[in-house]
Amino acid sequence: MPKPVNVRVTTIDAELEFAIQPNTTGKQLFDQVVKTIGLREIWFFGLQYTDSKGYQTWLKLNKKVLSQDVKKESPLQFKFRAKFYPEDVAEEIIQDITLRLFYLQVKNAILSDEIYCPPETSVLLASYAVQAKYGDFQKDLHAPGFLANDRLLPERVMQQHKLSREEWEERITNWYGEHRGMLREDAMMEYLKIAQDLEMYGVNYFEIKNKKGTELWLGVDALGLNIYEKDDRLTPKIGFPWSEIRNISFNDRKFVIKPIDKKAPDFVFFAPRLRINKRILTLCMGNHELYMRRRKPDTIEVQQMKAQNKEEKLAKQQEREKLQREIAAREKAEKMQAEYEERFRSMQQEMERRQGELSTAQDTIRKLEEQLRETQVAKEELVQQQQELHEMMIRLEESKNLEAEERARLEEEINSKQTEVAEIVSEVQRKEEENRQLQQEMEEARRRQDEASQALIAASTTPKHHHLQVAQYWKHFPQGAQAGGQKEYRTSKVLLEEIEGASDDDDDDDDEKMTNGDTSRDLMSYDDDVNDPVNERITLAEKNERLQHQLRSLKEDLANTRDDQAETTMDKIHKENVKQGRDKYKTLREVRKGNTKRRVDQFENM
Question: Pick from 17, 53, 100, 404: CA 20 to 30 A from residue 248's CA?
Answer without folding.
Answer: 53
